[in-house]
Amino acid sequence: MIRLKDLHERKASGEKLVCLTAYDATQAHWAAESGVDILLVGDSLGMVVQGHDSTLPVTMDEMVYHTKLVQRGNGRAWCMADMPFLSDASLEDGVRNAGRLLKEGGANMVKLEGRSDFHRQLVQTLSERGMPVCAHLGLLPQSVQKQGYRMVGKAASEADQLLIDARHFEAAGADMLLLECVARPVAQRIAGTLSIPVIGIGCGPDTDAQVLVWHDVMGTTVGGAPSFSHDFLAETGTVQGALKAYVEAVKTGQFPK
Q1: Between 20 and 30 A from 101 (CA), which of 44, 69, 87, 196?
Q2: Which residues contact residue 209 at a Cβ distance below 8 angstroms, ignoring those fewer than 6 apart?
Q3: Closest residue by Cα to residue 203 from 257, 166, 242
Q4: In 10 A of CB 62, how many CB atoms?
Q5: Catalytic residue chosen out of the listed positions 104, 180, 235, 248
Q6: Residues near 5 by Cβ (< 8 Å), separated by ≥ 6?
């Protein structure tokens, strides 16, 4: 099984890490067998599994349930699970619900969105209690009603703030950082500055790891996949072939361009 120290060592050595969402045991099994390093049980399930138009309706019970399924099929990869919308409404809620994902769901790590002082305090609190945490900056799907879907970090002031926030989260005890739709030069700068692994989605090729949604890799996303994604199934013809092609493309720097 891959451990957190393995991921940190691979970042230090320059090896690219591969992350993919998974929502059930079968997806987890084949992803892990194909060499995916990190499985993300994402609240994106609200859109690609449940058919909602955002991640907001996903509940804590649903996240625990899907994390259990993934961990039943996962024989190798590090597994992190999303804290769903309002599961961290207070420090007490955040600690309790993160504990549920680790104890009931069997996750190895929790991921939480947000850049406020409260979120940094929650990261520190969870870290002090021995819970591995991945922070999430850039485009925040749980804040889409206010922020919208857009590339983050094009303006100099916003780019500088992203770097400041990333450093603060690392100092607070975050073990990994996920950047979503952050301008490539900013993502590159953050990955080069932090000692913890930085996962990117829609951020260009310069982060330590890449993550995609399962359905985007397979070309089955209703309404079409985002422009930064790639349909690996169309090129290979089988699910296992698509997964291996995705892993190989990330490891060798062929994806993303």
Answers
A1: 196
A2: 16, 17, 18, 19, 37, 38, 197, 198, 199, 200, 250
A3: 257
A4: 16
A5: 180
A6: none
Distance between CA atoms of 146 and 238, rounded to whole angstroms? 39
Residues in the chain, overall count: 257
In one-letter notation, the amino acid at residue 249 is A
199-213: b or e for each residue (b if 16 or more CB lie within 10 Å)? bbbbbbbbbbbbbbb
Asked whether 104 and 64 are in contact (CB, 8 A), the reply is: yes
The first and second tokens of residue 19, run together, are 């992350």
Query: Does 33 qualify as catalytic in the annotation?
Result: no
The tens place of each residue's pLDDT in the chain, 257 residues long, gives 999 999 999 999 999 999 999 999 999 999 999 999 999 999 999 999 999 999 999 999 999 999 999 999 999 999 999 999 999 999 999 999 999 999 999 999 999 999 999 999 999 999 999 999 999 999 999 998 888 889 999 999 999 999 999 999 999 999 999 999 999 999 999 999 999 999 999 999 999 999 999 999 999 999 999 999 999 999 999 999 999 999 999 999 999 99
The Cα 114–Cα 229 span in angstroms is 24
Q: Is 106 left (phi over 0), alpha (psi -120 to 50) or beta?
A: left
Give the integer Cα–Cα distance in Å for 92 and 35.
36
What is the spatial distance between Cα 153 and Cα 214, in angstroms, rounded to a whole number? 26
Q: Count the Cβ atoms, other than its own, within 10 Å of residue 161.
A: 16
Phi/psi at 105 (5° precision): -80, -25
Supply 21's token pair.
Answer: 């969402």
Strands, E assignment, the chain: 17-21, 38-41, 78-82, 109-113, 133-138, 176-180, 198-201, 209-212
